[in-house]
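Key result, reporting period 2: structure in, sequence out.
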């Protein structure tokens, strides 16, 4: 089954360049870095997205209050962590290479578990 995947932030930084730390972390892990500018969630086809995976409760709240997304379509990504490291995933912004690497691995683990369980947390 094909799955369309989007990545977008709840704050609009679409006029800013991508963060060097994010691009470097992606390259180290052989993941294509984001495009030339960050994507804002308001630029996405929101009505066609079946599940929103967010890093923090505040992101879920913004999707609901600012974009009218039903809470039933939103999950905390950390709920799919096979190692149970917590429901929320902190933004590594400004915390250095080690924090970005840790966040990358945590997000990767959660996404793989989400795909393996078809969206049903253990």
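The corresponding designed sequence is given below.
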């Amino acid at each position: 089954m094909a799955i369309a995947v989007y990545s977008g932030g709840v704050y609009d930084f679409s006029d800013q360049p991508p963060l060097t730390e994010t691009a470097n972390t992606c390259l180290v892990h052989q993941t294509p870095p984001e495009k030339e500018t960050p994507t804002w969630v308001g630029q996405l086809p929101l009505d066609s997205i079946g599940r929103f995976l967010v890093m923090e409760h505040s992101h879920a709240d913004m999707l609901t209050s600012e974009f009218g997304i039903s809470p039933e379509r939103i999950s905390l990504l950390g709920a799919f962590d096979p190692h149970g490291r917590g429901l929320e995933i902190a933004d590594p912004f400004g915390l250095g290479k080690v924090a970005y690497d840790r966040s990358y691995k945590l997000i990767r683990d959660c996404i793989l578990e989400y795909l393996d369980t078809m969206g049903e947390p253990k």
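Helices lie at 20-28, 57-67, 97-117. The radius of gyration is 14 Å. This case is discussed further under Risks and Mitigation.
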